[in-house]
Every structure is written in C-alpha cells, then in structure tokens.
Amino acid sequence: MKFDHILIRYGELALKGKNQKFFINTLRSNVQRALKNYPHLSIKGKRDHMYILLDGEDPQPIINKCKDIFGIQSFSLAMKVENDEEKIKQAALEALNQDQGQTFKITCKRPNKHFPVRSQKMNQVLGGHLLTNTDNWQVDVHNPDVDIRVEIRHDATYITAKKIPGKGGLPVGSTGKTLLLMSGGIDSPVAGYLTMKRGVKLEAIHFHSPPFTSERAKQKVEDLAQTLTKFGGEVKLHLVPFTEIQQKIFKEAPENYGMTIMRRIMLQISEKVAEQKGILSLATGESLGQVASQTMESMHAINEVTNYPIIRPLVAMDKTEIIDLSKEIDTYEISIRPYEDCCTIFVPKQPKTRPKREKVNQFEAPIDFTNEIEKAINGVETVVFNASKSQKDDEIDELL
Amino acid sequence: MIYLDNSATTKPQDDVLKAFQTVATKYFANPSSIHRMGGEVEELLEKSRTQIASLLGVDRHEVIYTSGGTESNNLAIKGVAFQYQNRGSHIITSQIEHPSVLEACRHLEKVGYEVTYLPVNRKGEVSVEQLKKVIRKDTILVTLMHVNNEIGSVQPIGEIANVLQDYPKVMFHVDHVQGFGKISIPYNHKGIDLITISGHKIHGLKGSGCLIKKGQVNLMPLQHGGSQEDGYRPGTQNVANAVALAKAMRLSMEDAKNYHQLKSLKQTIINELQSYKKVMINSSETGAHHIINFSVQNFKPEVLIHAFSDEGIVVSTKSACSSRQNEASHVLLACGKAESDASTAVRVSMNNHQTKEDIEAFIQAFRNIMSKYEKIMG
C-alpha cells in the first residue's frame, strides 16, 4: 500500500466567491506548468481541493516543486483504497508508519452512508488497530502530531496523513501584472517574490550603464529573474540603456541632488514601459529609512513623477528580515555578488537625504532629458525567462 | 588485457572525457574574471559544485575542489592541525592508512604534534572501544580511511561518527577514496567533518578530487594566494576538472547499485585461491567486495605480476603509492601477517562492471602460472 496521490488544499482562494473558478483554473495551470517534466501525472482541480494522481512517480520531488507555488495552503499524501474495513485498517496503519511523531488522532468522515460502520465507530476501530500494531504511538485528540483523515466516499476511501504546509498566497496571474524595478541587490527580488505572493505576474526592468556597469551585474539580474520564475513562471526582463542619462545628470545637475533626479527619471521610464505593456503598477524593493533614496523626504520627492501605484512590499521590513527571506528564496547568493550596478556608480559623496520637491524641480527645469529618455525607451532590450530550462541550461546539464 | 587494478586507478568514462574536453575548449575563461565569459565559467563551476553537494546531501559551500586524494588528505590533516594548534596537538589515526595520511602525520610529529596510531585486528578493522579510550582532552583530529586500499577492510565510519558527535572539539576526517561509488557513508552526519574523494578512482580523471569540509570546520590553507575555493585552496580553478569530477561522481553513484554483484566474484576468486596450500588470503570476507589481497609463498610479487601480465591480466602489488619500496606492506604487518606474507602480497581490484568472464580468465591465468612456476619457486 503506497501513497498514490497528493491532495492540495487551497488557501484564501477557496473563499473568492464568483471568481473562484478562475482562481482554481489559474492555480491548476500553474501546477501543471511546474510539473511539466512529469508527463504521467494527472491533475484534477475541484471546488474545495485539487488532486495530483502520481501514477507511480516518487511524490517527494513533486511536493518540493509545489512548495514554490503560491495559492496552495497545504498538501497531504493520500491513498485510495476500496470501501472495505480491513483494507482501510491496513492503509491507515501504513499511513501512520510513514509519518513521524508520538501522538495521532483519527478523523473519519462517511459521506457514503451505505458503508456499514458509522464514522464514530470507525474512529474507535481504526484507533484500536493502530495502537495494537505500533509501539510508540499514543492517541491525542486535541493536539496530535499526526491527524489521519479517513474519508469514506462512494467511489472509494481516501486516507491522508501529515499536512505539509504550502506557501499560501494567491495563484500567480490571478491578480494582474506589475513592473518590478530590479537593481541586482538583495531587496528587489524579495519585493518581486512578495508581490507574486499576492497573485501578481511579474515583469522586471533593469537600468544598466555599460561600460560603467559590469557585464556581470547584468548577468546577476538575469540570474535573479531566472530564479524568480520558479515562483511565478515566465518573467520578462526589460534592460534599459542608461549610460547617457547618468552621464548627463552627473555633468549638469548639482551633485547632491543627482541621486534624486536619477531615481525620478528611472520612475518616469518605468511608467512609460509599463504603459506600453499594459501593466498597471510598479514595484520596488524600497524599505523605509534604509538608504538615502528611501527616506520619507526622498520618497516624497521621487514619487512625484508618477501617479502609478507603487507596490513596496518591503517598506516596513528590517534588513535582517529581508536577508532571511532572500536566503529562503535562493536569491541572496546571487544578490551579494560584488559587481557595480547603476545605483553604485556616479554616487554623490553626500546624497541629499532630505530632498525637497521644489528644489528638485528647480534643478531639473533647465536640463532637458526628453531625447535621452526617448532614446533609452527605444533601446530597451527584452529577455524572457522561463521556469523550464533554456538551451544553455540543457548544454550545462549535459556536461554534468 | 583484463584490467584488475582499479584501486590504483580506473579507466575514465567516455562521457567524463567528453565533458572535460568541451569545458576545456569552450569554457576556458578564468572563472574569477569579471567579464561575461568569466561569469559563464563561474556559473558552470558553481553548478558542478552544487551537483556534488546535492549528491552527498551537504551544502555547496562545503565542497572544496582539490587535485585529488593526496591533496585532500593533506589539506584536511595539516589544515586542522595548524588551525586548531591552540586547542591541542593530539591526532588519532590508524596503522593501515594511505601514505598521504601516514606521512602527513609523521611530518606533524616532527613539528611537535603527538600521533596515536590505532592498531587493527586480523581483518584490518580498528576497534571503536579502543578509539574511545585513546581520545584525550587535547585531541583535535581523528583521521581514518573508510575502505583500505590494499586489503579492502571497511571501518565502521557511521558508528565512529556517532561516538565523535559527542566530542565537538575533535574533528573527524574520513579518507573515502576507495569507498565512494561502492559503499556509501552518511555524508551529512554531524559527526563527520571532512571527507576526501578522488576522481580517478571512480572513472574520472587524474588530478581531480575534492575535500568535503563541513560548515563548522576551519582549516589553515596549505597554499596562500587568491580567494578561490573560499581561500582554502587558492589558485585558478580547473573548471574542466571540476565538471569532470561532478560528472564522474554522479555516474559513479548511479552505478553503485552494481557493486553488490562483485560479492560473488570475490567469492569465486577466494574459493579458487583457497585450494592452494601456498596461497594466503589477506583480505577478510567481511571487507569490501572489490579488493582481494593474497600472497603466494616464496613468490616474489613482481614476478607474479609480470607472469600475470604475460597472461593478459593486470594486477598489482600493494598500493601504487608505496609499491616501489621493496619492503613489506605496513597494512599487512599491522593485521598481524608474517613478514614473508606481508612482502609477497598481490592485489586484485575490480570495478563495478567486472564480468564473470574476467574472473574466469584471471583464475585460468593463475592456474597456468602455478603449474608453470610452482616447481621452480619451490
């Protein structure tokens, strides 16, 4: 007797009223995409849960993949047996033996009233069977380590054991799209991840200033975009040539306002790119007070140039919390590679930490960036990353 | 020729050679260079490291690429000894270690360290009880081989790791060179701190290997220079070798399931050898299946090896690292064998794909040699 399918429980999306079907279908296609390499699986989405029929596949790697998918509250391995008391007893014992802990409880449900034993009675029968046939387990009905659930349905009986927590959140693609400003540092990928958690599909924008910024910095951003695909599928990365604009700011603007002006131009370009792509919001990795550009005054001065909503999932997080999360999602090690990016070059010695809107407008007024901005937008290069392997990955896998 | 000297080295697999050549040709840039070509090579290097880590269930930061077994053993032993000299200066090893361990320990003795060389029983096994007894307050390292290269005896690494887990200040290094791909050890066991693996013993390439160094361990590097391999092994990384090692390790682990078939082949050889009065079998039946060590009375091992060679069979004397010295095997002496047996030992070492036919040919050759020379050698 082996676990032959995985039961997936929905989080909030089970509550989403009339849109429920759309949410479930989105989740189902996300699960399907993540498990593309297992052609034998069949995935069935129902109103209150989803099943993956394993057809002999090892469940562990499949669960590991599903752990990265938003919209899943928890999983359990499940077995399907005939509606036969002896077989149910045997399967329940098997399920308990494959788990770890000291205490268990049996929760039996009997939607199939043709089954002769009532659920209360079944609880006792199974509990007794497990106690006599194991050594170290005890019953605890209030706070068990393992809850063995037995559902006697019309077609068969389903037995599930340990609940494995999922990521929660909403299925990516169910709540629209955002354009993430990604520098290559620790924060922006985490911001992207958290935005995806709320069901948002991601596109990313990166500003690079060759030859002042390193090729390796661009590669970093590409690797980050690739890493984020495992949570939300395809990520489009828009690379904006930023050299001319940065040089112009450096030459013509007062040094201490350079950073503020640069950020404002980044937002203007981002908004235009978002508009072109039909994206309704921007997202950043800003965390209040972290650096000069992220003080309240700076946000006030920089934010002036756009009225697009800016999603800042990290705004209230501490750096240490952000770092922990970035380690959890495997972006930390990429982010800390030491290469110059557009935010670390042309940095003023003393950037204004409390810039004022009037001042920045006054300094910007005589400098005309229109042509440069247009040129930058026309020069955007878009690279698409997919959760499935690229040709280059295949080549590397072949070598290894 | 039938090659039965796999503990000396193995034939590299075609796929490993192909991978080496592709990387050496296409990914030749320096992985530490900041241009994109360097970046791609670095990515490849790190992917190979991640693969090794996941094969063993350790963290990828715990894999240090080296040039092979000897270097990994030296780095582990001297690295620990120098790093923790303020903590103590006592090292425990066994009498039957590979020269790269024994000589490193002897060198340390010369510069003020104390080394306990654990004896072994007739089967070539150390006693866990005895190990417990010799651990002192100033012990900083236990270094033991997993599978012995001359006679195939297997040390109870898991059991020793359980014991040493209670001594957090005693590092445990395992020379796993002859065991990898044959007999697995609990790589991620908290009681094991350092593990030596060599590429050319597992159908990989000479000059490739790694040292697994768990996160809690610090080592004084033997070389000083750049910050490659986290500074533990400076010098431009040999990425083609690293990739070849990762591939050889993957293939070798996938192939480990074939190891059990060597058991009956070993038995076939032992059954045959036992029928000769003059033959002494030095390997124990409880040892690894792939190594059979035996001595033929009054038969100089060189002569036997050349005679086998004439019959198309490649076998060897003790370890290649010590076979040029014309003296008795330290391993066999430690196992309590007579000087005469210890200086006439011959080793047959198989790979996981050795066939029945290979072994039949070996046996036929042995019969031919014995009938031809037995009288002369008297």
Automatic annotation (TrEMBL), chain A:
<keyword id="KW-0547">Nucleotide-binding</keyword>
<dbReference type="InterPro" id="IPR049961">
    <property type="entry name" value="ThiI_N"/>
</dbReference>
<feature type="binding site">
    <location>
        <begin position="181"/>
        <end position="182"/>
    </location>
    <ligand>
        <name>ATP</name>
    </ligand>
</feature>
<dbReference type="InterPro" id="IPR050102">
    <property type="entry name" value="tRNA_sulfurtransferase_ThiI"/>
</dbReference>
<keyword id="KW-0067">ATP-binding</keyword>
<dbReference type="InterPro" id="IPR020536">
    <property type="entry name" value="ThiI_AANH"/>
</dbReference>
<feature type="binding site">
    <location>
        <position position="263"/>
    </location>
    <ligand>
        <name>ATP</name>
    </ligand>
</feature>
<comment type="similarity">
    <text>Belongs to the ThiI family.</text>
</comment>
<protein>
    <recommendedName>
        <fullName>Probable tRNA sulfurtransferase</fullName>
        <ecNumber>2.8.1.4</ecNumber>
    </recommendedName>
</protein>
<keyword id="KW-0694">RNA-binding</keyword>
<dbReference type="InterPro" id="IPR003720">
    <property type="entry name" value="tRNA_STrfase"/>
</dbReference>
<dbReference type="InterPro" id="IPR054173">
    <property type="entry name" value="ThiI_fer"/>
</dbReference>
<dbReference type="Pfam" id="PF22025">
    <property type="entry name" value="ThiI_fer"/>
</dbReference>
<dbReference type="Pfam" id="PF02568">
    <property type="entry name" value="ThiI"/>
</dbReference>
<dbReference type="InterPro" id="IPR014729">
    <property type="entry name" value="Rossmann-like_a/b/a_fold"/>
</dbReference>
<keyword id="KW-0808">Transferase</keyword>
<keyword id="KW-0820">tRNA-binding</keyword>
<feature type="binding site">
    <location>
        <position position="285"/>
    </location>
    <ligand>
        <name>ATP</name>
    </ligand>
</feature>
<keyword id="KW-0784">Thiamine biosynthesis</keyword>
<feature type="domain" description="THUMP">
    <location>
        <begin position="60"/>
        <end position="163"/>
    </location>
</feature>
<comment type="pathway">
    <text>Cofactor biosynthesis; thiamine diphosphate biosynthesis.</text>
</comment>
<keyword id="KW-0963">Cytoplasm</keyword>
TrEMBL record, chain B:
<feature type="domain" description="Aminotransferase class V">
    <location>
        <begin position="2"/>
        <end position="362"/>
    </location>
</feature>
<dbReference type="InterPro" id="IPR020578">
    <property type="entry name" value="Aminotrans_V_PyrdxlP_BS"/>
</dbReference>
<dbReference type="InterPro" id="IPR016454">
    <property type="entry name" value="Cysteine_dSase"/>
</dbReference>
<dbReference type="InterPro" id="IPR000192">
    <property type="entry name" value="Aminotrans_V_dom"/>
</dbReference>
<dbReference type="Pfam" id="PF00266">
    <property type="entry name" value="Aminotran_5"/>
</dbReference>
<keyword id="KW-0479">Metal-binding</keyword>
<dbReference type="InterPro" id="IPR015421">
    <property type="entry name" value="PyrdxlP-dep_Trfase_major"/>
</dbReference>
<keyword id="KW-0408">Iron</keyword>
<comment type="similarity">
    <text>Belongs to the class-V pyridoxal-phosphate-dependent aminotransferase family. NifS/IscS subfamily.</text>
</comment>
<keyword id="KW-0411">Iron-sulfur</keyword>
<dbReference type="InterPro" id="IPR015422">
    <property type="entry name" value="PyrdxlP-dep_Trfase_small"/>
</dbReference>
<dbReference type="InterPro" id="IPR015424">
    <property type="entry name" value="PyrdxlP-dep_Trfase"/>
</dbReference>
<keyword id="KW-0663">Pyridoxal phosphate</keyword>
<protein>
    <submittedName>
        <fullName>Cysteine desulfurase family protein</fullName>
    </submittedName>
</protein>
